[in-house]
Amino acid sequence: MNWWHMDETHDPALTSWVPDADGHADFPIQNLPFGVFSPADGRPRIGVAIGPMILDLAACAQAGLLPSATAGLCTAHTLNGLMAAPAQARVDLRRRLSQLLSQPGERASLESWLYPADGCRLHLPATIGDYSDFYVGIHHANNVGRQFRPDNPLLPNYRYVPIGYHGRASSIRPSGEPLVRPAGQRKPPEATEPVFGPTARLDYELELGVWIGEGNPLGTPIPIDRAGAHVAGMCLLNDWSARDLQAWEYQPLGPFLAKNFHSTISPWVITREALAPFRIAQPPRPADDPAPLPYLLDPDDQAHGALAIMLEVLLTSAAMREAGMAPLRLSRGPASNMYWTVGQIVTHHASNGCNLNPGDLLGTGTISAATRDGFGSLMELSVGGKEPVALPTGETRTFLEDGDEITLRASAAADGFVPIGFGECRARVLPAP
Amino acid sequence: MNWWHMDETHDPALTSWVPDADGHADFPIQNLPFGVFSPADGRPRIGVAIGPMILDLAACAQAGLLPSATAGLCTAHTLNGLMAAPAQARVDLRRRLSQLLSQPGERASLESWLYPADGCRLHLPATIGDYSDFYVGIHHANNVGRQFRPDNPLLPNYRYVPIGYHGRASSIRPSGEPLVRPAGQRKPPEATEPVFGPTARLDYELELGVWIGEGNPLGTPIPIDRAGAHVAGMCLLNDWSARDLQAWEYQPLGPFLAKNFHSTISPWVITREALAPFRIAQPPRPADDPAPLPYLLDPDDQAHGALAIMLEVLLTSAAMREAGMAPLRLSRGPASNMYWTVGQIVTHHASNGCNLNPGDLLGTGTISAATRDGFGSLMELSVGGKEPVALPTGETRTFLEDGDEITLRASAAADGFVPIGFGECRARVLPAP
């Protein structure tokens, strides 16, 4: 069972009896992402998003409507069990859900288990054992590197190593939960000593998240031609960053407190089954770049390992909100700006025998385009704080102010298929205490 | 309830009816560390080490012998619940165990729940949510820095920031479990391109581990005068490192695959109650060094925040083992070579609001002495591979060979108190697959 599994659930002619599901920007019946939600008066449970509604999978399982191999896993309070399930079992569950939500005859039995998403609380979909973040957005690496090393922005290892590092699992939060502006040490360029206080350079980072499904035992690498089978799905990830803390602390062991105060993810797991129609060829490397080392090179991964996903970042300041203005789009660009594929980062991560577990989360790193309209952070858009971004209120931003809200969105599209979206990854900045 | 809690459990005159407990190098009755063990024929359960034996706390709890506030927590399969318990509840449990194991009248009822440690398997004591590693061994930082920057070994942030980074929780293993030599990318100095294969520079790192007890909510820092209350106990930590992978991958985001293939910890949690008699003053900083910033500075932490613990590293090669030779001591030095206290690293970690949880593990970073006899890694002892270390077989080592076994040991001592030890942190290197 490979990532490429295509079946009747991807049929563009498929429609749902759920009102407003057909044509829904994020969650038409061809998507069927999994998540964990609470209705207004209820406890957390597993659900699937369909249009503006959420179907309670625990109720479906208890009513005997789901395949026996996964019904028990659907009554859990996290998706870890489903993520660990064999791929065939997840495919069978998806096909069953596609039937239930498309066949009008099922409406009467399911309708009472549908909840309007607007009235529900979305939780983290899984218990995240370990969270690792990569750096595969080559334009981001170039843009950031250029601010430090104008003539030589990319370090020598970049084109060989899918650079990554470990992040903090405990402070990952679902969309909607506000973040508190963090304090920390920063050293103003003209100062002789650092000061401690709230960050003055709070930034967002536009990333994709990768949910690990099947794990690998410690000491056992994952071959590149099997990497896709270890991916359960994807989400959006905002890797909030305090740039002044980062600049002062990061040598020699990398970012720490500049990143681990809060990370926001979109709460729906867009499954690799749902993403199958949107795989595309990895863009060819520039002629001067080395080929990936053999352990990272697989013809199928090169031919189909990238994803046709468009990403965008929206900002709403407090003043914009009060004036009833629409969010300002700060950037928009394709996920094909990733220098390494999802398969390559999974294989690299396990290449030393490091064990990945179901529910682990990998971040891609900031995905920027080559041009300013696709830059994935304010550090890039404002060129390190030197070129303010104009807001429709007349305000400007170099970095984020209290009350600012950042929303990440993504959608996958391919000729002949119904586009699907990731839902929102959104959070507002609260002042330092 | 602060770290300084001293009571009758620390009385040097206290003795145990358990054979060979009195005078035991690691686990006299004044220690009473907690762990999770399986008898030869049984399932994992919580126990306390006493001399060469382990007392089954689940059995004691079920028999109604333990205080009601913690009895239920003692029947769990990990220590996370006990670590999260209020400090007073843990103190009460310790006092009860001290009574049970010292009063000869208790022997008849407890004897059947004592297991020889030699016949038991020790597990990880807790489910580790997040693992962070620091860099507080200033001589280690100097030694390593000197290999790259002879004139300026310490970076400008070192004396202000307790430098740390996130590590991998999934690959932490208890003492005794062998590690597999990892593969990875390394770039020989004379080569134009990196190669992929087993590391040629496998090293150990001598560290202390800090177990977090009570956590802090996201967004809420831990003041330095409360840091001790968030520490449940300590252990030994071997942060196995592949130096050739590390040199090639670590810029700009820090070590990743060079470290996350395996970390070994000693399985007994030496509680902060047990360590109370061994607190000492933090050594004064050199006159030219800046004072810690106010958020890291507390008079009590400066006066009593260091620990009188001696650390040592032992090596046994396969040839030494076959010849029946004793392990070779590679180094020995005091934990007071930490530039920052345990309280300072806890407070710094949470200073941006990052939430720590019960069962999280913090590593101190390699603790080296100023002189060669106390260097905590082979990279330091062999000066980056240039000066081989002689073994009693006539073999030499610059880095570790397959079959080598590294054992870390530690003991705390203070005038007027019975010394206590940490038990072994030991693992053997298996060849790459």
UniProtKB/TrEMBL annotation, chains A, B:
Residues spanning the membrane: none
Residues reported to bind Ca(2+): 133, 205, 207, 239
GO molecular function annotations of the record: fumarylacetoacetase activity; metal ion binding
Tree of life domain: Bacteria
Enzyme Commission numbers on file: 3.7.1.2
Pfam families the record matches: FAA_hydrolase (PF01557), FAA_hydrolase_N (PF09298)
Record-listed Mg(2+) binding positions: 239, 259, 263
Region (Disordered): 174-196
Coiled coil: none
Cofactor (UniProt): Ca(2+); Mg(2+)
Enzyme class: hydrolase
Fumarylacetoacetase N-terminal domain sequence ranges: 30-125
Known pathway: Amino-acid degradation; L-phenylalanine degradation; acetoacetate and fumarate from L-phenylalanine: step 6/6
Active site residues according to the UniProt entry: 140
Keywords, sorted A to Z: Calcium, Hydrolase, Magnesium, Metal-binding, Phenylalanine catabolism, Tyrosine catabolism
GO BP annotations, alphabetical order: homogentisate catabolic process; L-phenylalanine catabolic process; L-tyrosine catabolic process
Residues binding substrate: 135, 149, 246, 250, 366
Chain ranges of the Fumarylacetoacetase-like C-terminal domain: 139-429
NCBIfam families (UniProt xref): fum_ac_acetase
Protein's recorded name: fumarylacetoacetase
Source species of the chain: Croceibacterium mercuriale
Classification of source organism: Bacteria, Pseudomonadati, Pseudomonadota, Alphaproteobacteria, Sphingomonadales
